[in-house]
Structure formats: structure tokens, C-alpha cells
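C-alpha cells in:
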């Protein structure tokens, strides 16, 4: 059930691919100002990545199931806010909360795998969890397309709300199958109790908030009820009587959850957990990761590596990283337990994961771009379906990789997988104007997808084979963070390399007047531009192949201590994705 939740949350990462134009229109952003929609994407990424280490540490302290349930509740709340969003701040806030909740599922689920399965049977579950996480990249756009064919974009997030709450209830009901933590045992020892006051306040807050967001026309036109929507000052929705009532209900709900003996949400208990998990360190690390994310995610890769303020974001990230390192050395209970990542395979897994992400993003972005450049210039759907062949092979490879590490050293499996991925990219550099339509293209796509899949579970196993049991959650979080940061850096660096090749090829193309001889349409000139675009994608594929080879070499060198025999004698080895 936790794996299903991971797959569903992962799909939400890609669900905006088709819905983004409608989402922009829904919050008042013109469709021709696509750059203003960047926070919708980067807000989700920021929540997903920046909060992962803190949530992973909480999973180590509080237990896996409570974190899974809370993450799904936060994801559902973010879905609700997104569905009701009326401007950019509200939709970005909703997407941020969705990212926090969706990202929090990953380390808790992977640590739960380590709790539930003995070491000798853990490889396949690791592969399955890694596989379902990647399946989200296939399901997300398809899910969005199906919903958009029958309804508008808000329905996508309304479905997310319902599914998130159902999954939270299902995981909570099935919690008895997992080893309980100390906190969970204490909770189970107490008698079931329904907090009617807290539930009433929560429903009141949600109802008032829905009215603020939706602003039903029938109420606004009414002479009496319409006064609830008239601002006290300015034009903000929260400066209205109904807005003030919503804020008051929220304050009462928070106060009740803080002071009540058995509240709907043990807010005081969660605050204690945040303090114990090193909230200060988590905020410093989040600032560092956020700076990196904003520097790359807000840039237009067609014209720049960083956004105009990207260098300042990176400066802030460096300052925050230095402060975090200083804090970890001085804190009594730091976010990252001292020595948790001191062993070579542990920190080496983060490095390998970084290069895996840098190579993987080239496949996710540039395979569809290649299809658009060549045979599908005016149709996005067939171009996206080309990538599906790659993505369907990836989860198959993930399960196979999880099975192989039972008998083959993880370093060898990872290296073989990444060399297969590199081979797939090299084959892509041989693609021409019509290769995408030919069966031979499937060789590169399937080889690359299987290769990346093979590397997922071994990297995770190598990391957690050399981390302590009480750090599995935070270690799982860091391996995900490393791969996501690798993706962000990779797409900017590889796109820059590709554009340099494109501009170089473009210089050799004669002016359109010379080639077309005054004709309004010139197939020859168009073909020359397409050839320059192919050269650009070939350069990206070569760069991605290089990243894959680096990952393979690092895995062989840094994972040489990890052997199946060593894995089998450890009592608890976790996984990350």
C-alpha cells in the first residue's frame, strides 16, 4: 500500500505536463507568458527535495507509519489548495505542500521495506519500490490526459485529494503489519478516541476556506451574503469577513490541537518530534537545497544555465551549506547523525546517484525533444509516447536489479546497468531524421531503460548496507535528494552543451534567402535546421553517456566493499529511491 502511495505521488510530479497551460489560465496568467508559470513546477520540486532530509529523520524517530499517514494528509491538503487556487501564490503554496507530502512518502516507504523484509529477501522489494517510483513518470501525463479529456485541471487535484485521504486511511488500518516504534506502541495502548470538537473545527475551517477560494456567484450576488466578500481594505480575499472567519477557525483549530488532552492532531507531539529531528539544521539544509533548485529550475535552459538571479541563489546556498555544516558539528542531536555517512559506500552512493540523475534527465527531456525535432514537429502526444518505450523498460530493470543483488555485488550490477544506459545513449547519437519511426530505435530505448532500472536498487542497497538502522530514513532521503539535484544540474549543463553544438551547426547554414530563392516555404532550409537540431540532441546524448560511464566507474570503485555475503550478515539494511 505504501508503494502504491509512492507511485501515485510520483505521478503528480509529471501531471502538470499537459495541464500547465490550463492551470496558468485558471490563476490569471496569460498563456503567452510561460516563464511566469515556472513557480508552479519549481514550487513542487522545492517542497519535494528541500524537506526530504527532515521527513526522513522524523521517520527514524517517530516511526514509518505515522510519517506515511501524515505525508499523505499533507499531500491531500496541498491537492485541496491547488484545486481551489485562484492566483499564483495560492497555487504555488498548494504545489509546495504536495511536494512536501509526496516527497515524504519516499524515505518512509523505503525505510519500511528495511523493517518488513529480512536482508536476504530485500532485493526484490527494493526493486519494486524503485520501479513504482519511476512508473509515475508514465502514469502522470496519462492520468492528466484522461482527466482533461472529460473535465478541467481542477478535477485532477480533486481526485488527488480523495485518493490521498483513502490511502492514508488504508495505511493506518494496515499499520499492524509493520513493527511498531515506541511512539506507535504507546498510541496503540491507548483507547480509540474520536475528537469531535477537533473534527468540527477542521470541517468548519475547510468549509470556510472553500468559500473563500471558490467565491460562489450565487452568494456573491446576494444582497445579504454578498457582504461577506467585501474587503475591509484593499482587494485581498483574506481581508473579507469570510476570510477573517476562516483565519479565526484555523487559529481555534490549532489552539485546540495544542492544548486539548487527546486532540484530532497531536500538534504538540509533532512539534517535539520536529525539535528532536533538528528543525534548525533541517531549515539550513532546506535553504541550501532550495538555492540550488531555484538557481537551475527557474532558468530557461534554451538560453541560460542559471536564471538571472541564479548566481545569488547559489551564493545563498553556499552560505546555508556552510552554516549547516557548522551546526551539525555543534548540535547535540543533528539532523544527520554523526558518522551516519562516513563509510565510503554510504557517501559514494550519493555521488553515484547524482550522476545517475544527471544522465537520466537527458532521456526524460531530450528523447521527446528529438522526436519533436524530427518526425513529430506539430504533435506532442506521439513524441511523448516515444519516451514511454524507455520508461516501460525502466521498472522492469529495477525489479531485475533488485533480484540480482542477492547473488551479484551491487557495484557490478550498478556498473553494468549504467554501461547499458551509456550504450543506449551512444545508439541514440546514431539516430537520423526518420530513425524514431523505425524498429531499430527501440533497441536504444529499451537498452537505456533497462540499464537505468538495473542501477536503482543496487545503489540504494549499497548506501544502507553501510548506514546504521536508526539512520535509514534520513539516508534514504539523501540518496533521493542527490539524484534530484543531479537532474537539475544535468539538464542545465547538458542543454548548454547541446546549444553550443546547435549554434555551431547553424553558422554553416546559408541565409534563408539564398537557400529558398524567395519561395515562401522551403523544405531544404527546414531540413537544414532539423539537422542542426539533431546535432544538438546528439551532443546531449553524448554528454549523458559520459555521465552514465562516470556513474559506472564510481560504482565499481566506491562499492567494492559491498558484497552479497556482507549484505547477508547484517541484521538491518534499508533502501532508498
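Residues out:
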Amino acid at each position: 500500500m505504501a508503494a502504491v502511495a509512492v507511485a501515485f505521488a510520483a505521478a503528480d510530479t509529471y501531471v502538470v505536463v499537459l495541464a500547465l497551460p490550463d492551470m496558468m489560465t485558471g490563476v490569471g496568467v496569460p498563456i503567452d507568458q510561460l516563464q511566469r508559470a515556472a513557480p508552479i513546477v519549481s514550487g513542487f520540486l522545492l517542497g519535494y527535495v528541500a524537506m526530504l532530509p527532515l521527513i526522513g529523520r522524523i521517520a527514524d524517530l517517530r516511526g514509518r507509519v505515522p510519517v506515511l499517514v501524515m505525508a499523505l494528509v499533507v499531500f491531500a491538503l496541498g491537492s485541496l489548495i491547488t484545486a481551489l487556487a485562484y492566483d499564483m501564490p495560492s497555487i504555488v503554496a498548494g504545489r509546495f505542500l504536495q511536494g512536501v507530502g509526496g516527497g515524504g512518502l519516499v524515505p518512509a516507504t523505503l525505510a519500511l521495506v528495511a523493517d518488513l523484509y529480512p536482508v536476504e529477501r530485500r532485493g526484490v522489494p527494493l526493486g519494486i519500490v524503485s520501479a513504482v517510483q519511476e512508473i509515475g513518470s508514465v502514469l502522470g501525463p496519462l492520468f492528466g490526459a484522461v482527466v482533461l479529456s472529460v473535465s478541467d485541471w481542477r478535477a485532477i487535484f480533486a481526485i488527488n485529494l480523495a485518493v490521498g485521504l483513502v490511502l492514508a486511511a488504508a495505511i493506518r488500518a494496515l499499520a499492524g503489519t509493520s513493527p511498531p516504534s515506541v511512539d506507535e506502541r504507546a498510541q496503540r495502548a491507548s483507547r480509540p478516541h474520536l475528537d469531535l470538537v477537533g473534527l468540527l473545527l477542521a470541517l468548519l475551517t475547510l468549509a470556510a476556506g472553500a468559500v473563500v477560494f471558490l467565491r460562489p456567484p450565487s452568494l456573491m450576488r446576494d444582497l445579504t451574503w454578498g457582504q461577506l466578500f467585501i474587503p475591509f481594505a484593499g482587494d485581498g480575499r483574506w481581508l473579507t469577513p469570510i476570510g477573517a472567519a476562516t483565519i479565526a477557525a484555523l487559529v481555534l483549530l490549532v489552539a485546540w490541537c495544542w492544548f486539548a488532552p487527546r486532540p484530532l492532531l497531536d500538534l504538540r507531539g509533532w512539534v517535539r518530534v520536529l525539535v528532536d529531528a533538528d528543525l534548525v539544521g533541517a531549515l539550513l539544509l532546506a535553504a541550501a537545497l532550495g538555492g540550488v533548485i531555484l538557481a537551475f529550475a527557474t532558468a530557461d535552459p534554451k538560453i541560460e544555465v542559471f536564471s538571472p538571479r541564479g548566481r545569488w541563489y547559489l551564493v545563498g546556498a553556499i552560505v546555508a551549506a556552510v552554516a549547516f555544516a557548522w551546526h551539525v558539528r555543534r548540535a547535540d542531536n543533528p539532523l544527520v547523525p554523526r558518522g551516519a555517512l562516513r563509510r565510503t559506500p554510504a557517501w559514494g552512493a550519493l555521488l553515484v546517484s547524482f550522476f545517475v540523475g544527471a544522465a537520466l534527465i537527458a532521456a526524460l527531456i531530450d528523447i521527446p525533444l528529438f522526436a519533436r525535432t524530427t518526425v513529430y514537429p506539430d504533435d506532442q502526444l506521439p513524441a511523448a509516447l516515444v519516451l514511454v518505450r524507455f520508461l516501460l523498460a525502466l521498472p522492469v530493470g529495477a525489479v531485475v536489479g533488485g533480484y540480482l543483488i542477492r547473488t551479484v555485488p551491487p557495484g557490478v550490477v550498478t556498473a553494468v546497468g549504467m554501461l547499458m544506459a551509456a550504450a543506449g545513449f551512444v545508439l541514440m547519437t546514431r539516430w537520423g531524421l526518420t530513425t524514431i519511426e523505425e524498429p531499430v530505435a527501440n533497441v536504444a530505448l529499451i537498452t537505456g531503460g533497462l540499464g537505468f532500472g538495473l542501477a536503482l536498487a543496487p545503489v540504494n542497497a549499497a548506501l544502507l548496507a553501510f548506514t546504521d538502522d536508526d539512520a535509514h530514513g534520513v539516508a534514504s532521503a539523501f540518496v533521493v535528494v542527490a539524484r534530484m539535484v543531479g537532474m537539475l544540474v544535468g539538464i542545465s549543463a547538458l542543454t548548454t552543451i547541446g546549444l553550443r553544438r546547435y549554434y555551431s551547426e547553424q553558422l554553416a547554414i546559408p541565409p534563408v534567402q539564398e537557400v529558398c530563392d524567395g519561395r515562401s516555404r522551403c523544405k531544404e532550409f527546414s531540413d537544414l535546421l532539423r539537422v542542426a537540431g539533431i546535432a544538438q540532441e546528439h551532443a546531449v546524448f553524448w554528454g549523458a553517456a559520459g555521465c552514465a560511464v562516470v556513474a559506472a566507474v564510481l560504482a565499481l570503485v566506491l562499492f567494492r566493499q559491498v558484497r552479497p555475503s556482507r549484505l547477508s550478515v547484517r541484521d538491518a539494511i534499508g533502501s532508498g529511491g
